[in-house]
Write a structure and sequence with these properties.
- The chain is about 30% helix and about 30% strand.
- It is α+β, with helices and mostly antiparallel strands and about 350 residues long.
- The chain folds into two domains: about 170 residues, Super Roll (Bactericidal permeability-increasing protein, domain 1); about 140 residues, START domain (Alpha-D-Glucose-1,6-Bisphosphate, Chain A, domain 4, 2-Layer Sandwich), CATH 3.30.530.
- The strands form two sheets. Strands 8, 9, 10, 11, 12, 13, 14 and 15 form an eight-stranded antiparallel sheet that branches. Strands 1, 2, 3, 4, 5, 6 and 7 form a seven-stranded antiparallel sheet that branches.
- The N and C termini lie far apart (about 50 Å).
- This is Hsp90 co-chaperone AHA1.
């Protein structure tokens, strides 16, 4: 990458959010805990959001980042041999976070008192220290992999002042290992560049843009009911019409007379503001699941996000969590999607059927 910045004097920043996501997708699933027999291991990075950039001015390099992420894990109950799953959410991984300041929200799906206590204890004692080490190392690896992209070489710098800053920066960078880069996905701007322009979604269609930059969401609402009842509430046409106030419009179906929504059915909700296509259904008691394409009517024609609903029932606590993995959400639409889903799906279902308290 070519940087036009005499003596490295001007402010230059590089957006490293995609590099950061790839970094944690590689580092976190390598973590596991086997000390207490539960064989708990991180499966994947489920949700990743925030800001991450590397900046330089007058030869000084700094990193600024504030990230939130959720990972999914699996483990085995040492006494019964039964497999359990769950999630760990880290609400803040920031450039100035001290090692003891990280917060971890641990969820165990299909939880029992015994397994919940066992898993949380092992995760806190063994897995979380490993995650903290990854977070502390991240800042160093971020600079090592991306800093040289936003500076001209020291040999081309004539300013004594910036040369001194370059020397001190390079000493820090040499102490961190070089990591793989996703530079092609990142962007660099300088103080001389034109300001960025954000284009409203409503105008994108007129520009004939075929897709969006996208991100993902991870939600885990809890309902006081059986997973089977909740699963049916999303598919039974009568129930759907109740919690959506009669807004269900089936556009295409293999059986229009069916009392339930079926795989490959296409339908609209809330006055045509939401378009949905069910792409997969799993009604087994072990893992009830609904996968669907979902879009708002002001998005680009034909563009859909993808929602996976996994129903996790805890018999001991008489509750069901829905693990919602929501991919291909247009960047900038995250809050809108989340608020609409929480208000018109989660809250409406709880109020209509008495499936839980409203917080």
């Amino acid at each position: 990458m070519v940087v036009q910045n005499p003596n490295n004097w001007h402010w230059v920043d590089k957006n490293c959010i995609y590099w950061a996501k790839e970094y944690f997708e590689k580092k976190l699933p390598a973590l596991d805990s086997t000390k207490q027999g539960s064989n708990i291991h991180v499966v994947k990075l489920s949700n990743f959001d925030g800001d991450c950039e590397v900046n330089q001015r007058k030869g000084k390099i700094i990193s600024l980042y504030d990230l939130k992420m959720t990972v999914l894990y699996e483990g085995v109950d040492a006494s019964s041999g039964e497999k359990y799953e769950g999630s760990i959410t880290i609400p803040e991984v920031a450039f100035d976070t001290e090692v003891d300041d990280y917060q971890f929200e641990i969820v165990v799906y299909k939880e029992t008192v015994k397994v919940g206590e066992q898993f949380r204890k092992e995760i806190r004692s063994d897995l979380i220290p490993q995650m903290k080490a990854v977070f502390q190392q991240f800042g160093k690896d971020l600079l090592a992999a991306n800093a040289e992209d936003i500076q001209i070489p020291e040999s081309e710098v004539s300013s004594v002042f910036t040369k001194q800053n370059l020397s001190s920066s390079s000493t820090v960078l040499k102490s961190a290992p070089k990591t793989s880069s996703a530079a092609s996905a990142n962007s660099t701007t300088s103080s001389n560049d034109k300001p960025k322009v954000t284009v409203p979604l409503s105008t994108l269609g007129a520009q004939k843009i075929s897709t969006y930059n996208s991100t993902s969401l991870h939600l885990e609402p809890t309902f006081n009911c059986r997973s089977r009842d909740l699963y049916e509430t999303f598919l039974d046409k009568g129930r759907v019409n109740v919690w959506t106030r009669g807004s269900l419009q089936v556009v295409k179906s293999t059986d229009m007379g069916s009392p339930k929504l079926l795989e490959n059915d296409e339908f609209k909700l809330f006055g045509g503001n939401i378009d949905c296509i069910i792409t997969a259904l799993d009604s087994s008691d072990v893992n009830e699941k609904i996968v669907m394409k979902w879009r708002m009517n002001d998005w680009l024609e034909g563009y859909f996000s993808e929602i996976t609903l996994n129903f996790k029932q805890s018999d001991e606590y008489n509750e069901t969590k829905i693990q919602i993995i929501w991919d291909k959400v247009p960047v900038g639409q995250e809050d809108r999607c989340k608020k609409n889903f929480e208000e018109y799906y989660i809250k409406s279902i709880k109020l209509t059927f008495g499936f839980g308290a409203i917080l």
